[in-house]
Amino acid sequence: MHPDREAYLVNRNVLSRRVLAGVALAALALTGCGSNDNSSEPGGSGGDGAYADLSGELKASGASFPDAYYQEVVEAFKAEASDVTVTYNATGSGTGKKQFGEGLVDFAGTDSLVKDTDGVTAGSFMYVPTVAAPITVSYNLEGVDKLQLSPETLAKIFQTDIKTWDDAAVKADNPGVELPNTPITVAHRSDGSGTTSNFTKYLDAAAAGTWKLGSGDTVAWPASTQGGEKNTGVAQIVKQTNGAVGYVDLSDAKATGLKFAAIKNKDGQFVEPSLEGTTAGLEGAEVAEDLSYNPLNAAGASAYPITAPTFIIVKTSYDDANKAALVKGFLTYLLNDGQELAEEVDFAPLPASLKEKALAQVEKIQG
Could you tell me which residue ranges the PBP domain spans (predicted)? Predict the structure, then answer.
């Protein structure tokens, strides 16, 4: 494990233990207040005993973007459901959807919506929104600690129309900043990735007419660019290469010690990636009937424009009733107590209205 990541995880686990201690104290206090009803079910809001009767194993794979958050929730869930083992393997959204369609996992994480080519049968699954987070434009440029980029400049950089950091377009975005004549190395995902899908969708929308590579889990990157597996792979390329730039989730960017650019939003403001900017971006997002939504390039002076949602896809009906109960129990926990863990690993919890819709979606699972 990289030393920066190890230190970050140690700090994160300390925070997690503090949260769990608080939950335990709250549960004891509630017990002292005296409730004689011990029939709490996993469909409730969590707490002492709500998940104690669950037993079994859940296997999941998918998006690496929310992996830090999902691992926190999995760890915290153990304290509530000691007889349940949940494994989430961050394979990337594309592989997760494929494995879900093949029946190799019980649910999958994805930052992009399911397509016909993903191998998942239409009508057999549902989206459950979980959290959202900014996709950073992380960079490594000696002597430059602050950087601003407009969508058009960003598009030109990532399709390699701009070759060096002292290009006139980059200078125009950064008045007064001394930019070196350092060659730009573009780092991108080499695997099928929902992060790539959201990043390229953003460029398609915000830099329409400039961006030429289209959007999707994979795109045809120029030959001179470098690919890395998962968000951590892209982060390491950026960290190790002076002049490099890549798109990385905020959690992994911080864990790797990267600098990230402020991006010009729809209202013309340069905004750095943050949870506050993510929340501002979520407020104006329209939610579809299937609970998919897209907060990219949202309006609002404080909205960070590359705000990405992430989802878990579940079966509408499981053959095994116990498996259905386990999935419902875990996701109910994630959407209740689990939301309190989001900000500690740089994710924004769902707005209250969307959280309630997500809980209602979970209750529809049959088995």
Answer: 55-337
**pLDDT at residue 40 tops 80:** no
User: How many other CB atoms are there within 10 angstroms of residue 117's CB atom?
Assistant: 11
Indicate if the pLDDT at residue 35 is higher than 70.
no
Residues 257, 258, 264: CA angle, nearest 5 degrees: 145
Q: Which CATH class is domain 134-283?
A: alpha beta
Domain 3-25+44-130+310-363 falls in which CATH fold? D-Maltodextrin-Binding Protein; domain 2 (3.40.190)
Judged against a pLDDT cut of 80, whether residue 17 lies above it is answered with: no
Spatial separation of the C-alpha atoms in residues 77 and 98, rounded to whole Å: 26
Q: Render pLDDT for 92-139 as a digit per residue (tens, 0 to 9).
A: 999 999 999 999 999 999 999 999 999 999 999 999 999 999 999 999
Q: Enumerate the domain spans of the chain.
A: 3-25+44-130+310-363, 134-283
Residue 103, CB-side half-sphere exposure with 13 Å CA sphere: 6
Whether 134-283 and 3-25+44-130+310-363 are alike in CATH topology: the answer is yes
